[in-house]
């Protein structure tokens, strides 16, 4: 596959993944779909670190757009430089995307391990922190959180989605990093007539 076509495919995959991370992080701010508990005292630190919005979202959206652009026409509009200029930009933005996805993965993984902040026995706190993540397999413990309602299910689902999306983003940004590096040195193997489409 040509470096330009590969870049376009990777970019078109990264853009929806970054949007999924942004939406998942936004939903974490409103447990059970309500703003009643959206304040510093009722949400976990991992939610406020905005890893899905900043790391898996915006820091990956930029490489996604750069990769789509790198898969387009050359810098002069006719592919004269074999898209080397855009591929070089895509190398740096893909490395930036890998860092963002790693940030999202590490914060989301910590959010899963520690568990949500919730009200239990009239006390707000991280009541699953000492379980070291074993609460994930023991669903009977999930109902011990009195408020926000269904917060454990909400957090586990959304943080799991962020972990899965950020893993895919790391792989795709890594592929684009290698692909763009090849594109810088080798150019785009598409014929000139293909580059105008």
Describe this entry's structure for a reader.
It is found in: Membrane. It holds the Pfam family L6_membrane. The chain crosses the membrane at residues 7-28, 48-70, 91-114. InterPro entries: L6_membrane (IPR008661). There is one protein chain. The model has no long low-confidence stretch (mean pLDDT 85). Helix content is 61%, strand content 3%. The protein has helices spanning 3-28, 45-48, 51-70, 84-114, 151-186, 192-195; strands spanning 118-120, 123-125. Helix 3 (51-70) runs antiparallel to helix 4, helix 3 (51-70) packs parallel to helix 5 and helix 4 packs antiparallel against helix 5. It has one domain. The protein has a two-stranded antiparallel ribbon with strand order 1-2. It is mainly alpha-helical and 197 residues long.
């Amino acid at each position: 596959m040509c470096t330009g076509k590969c870049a376009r495919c990777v970019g078109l995959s990264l853009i929806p993944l970054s949007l999924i991370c942004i939406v998942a992080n936004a939903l974490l701010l409103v447990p059970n779909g309500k703003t009643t508990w959206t304040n510093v005292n009722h949400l976990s630190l991992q939610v406020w670190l905005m890893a899905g919005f900043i790391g898996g979202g915006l820091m990956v959206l930029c490489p996604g757009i750069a990769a789509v652009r790198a898969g387009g026409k050359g810098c002069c509009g006719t592919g004269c430089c074999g898209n080397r200029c855009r591929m070089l930009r895509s190398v740096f933005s893909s490395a930036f995307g890998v860092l963002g996805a790693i940030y999202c993965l590490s914060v989301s993984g910590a959010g899963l391990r520690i568990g949500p902040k919730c009200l239990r026995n009239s006390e707000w706190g991280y009541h699953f922190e000492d379980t070291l993540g074993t609460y994930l397999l023991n669903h009977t413990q999930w109902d011990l959180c009195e408020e926000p309602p269904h917060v454990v299910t909400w957090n586990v689902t959304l943080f799991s989605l962020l972990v899965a999306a950020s893993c895919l983003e790391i792989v795709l940004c890594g592929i684009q990093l290698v692909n763009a590096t090849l594109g810088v040195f080798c150019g785009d193997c598409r014929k000139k007539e293909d580059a105008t489409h």
